[in-house]
Amino acid sequence: MKLVTALLYPLFALFLLGSFPSFAEQKQQLGKWDVHYMLMPTTMLDADVAKNYQLSRSRNYQLLNISVLNTADQQAQAVELSGTATNLAGQRQQLSFKPVKEGAALYYLAGVEARSEQKITIELSIRQGNELQVLKFTQDVYPE
Q1: Is the pTM value of this prediction over 0.90?
Q2: Could you write out the three-class secondary structure of the chain?
Q3: Which residues form the DUF4426 domain (predicted)?
Q4: Which residues contact 64 (CB under 8 A, 6 or more apart)?
């Protein structure tokens, strides 16, 4: 629950201030799944939470948070994730995901390097058995 609080509290505070950032959680329905995703500066993470989950807090890194839920019952799904982050210059990063389980929730976290303000395109393959879906989105990032 600490991770959920650490991720959502800053977003809630910004919402109350009337400034909803581009790193707010988003969702796409892919096949039988609701895929929730969020790309945010790691500097927004509480230092203790980052340490507990072995996440790097740096102005040059973004945190990609993925959660895959069954559309019918909203149960967290264990999946295999692979993918890339690509900037407009064509520089590509392979993403390495770390699963984090908290109670019934299951998150997949990956770091994305971003040294300057830029657009990043994330393309992920999400697999569970024979089911394969692709999530693709582009987002502006603003290192803190």
Answers
A1: no
A2: CHHHHHHHHHHHHHHHCCCCCCCCCEEEEECCEEEEEEEEEHHHCCHHHHHHCCCCCCCCEEEEEEEEEECCCCCECCCEEEEEEEECCCCEEEECCEEEEECCEEEEEEEEECCCCEEEEEEEEEEECCEEEEEEEEEEECCC
A3: 27-144
A4: 37, 38, 39, 85, 95, 109, 110, 111, 112, 122
- CATH superfamily membership of 2-141: Domain of unknown function DUF4426 (2.60.40.3340)
10 Å Cβ neighbour count for 22? 11
Tens of pLDDT along 1-43?
555 555 544 444 433 333 344 455 699 999 999 999 999 888 8
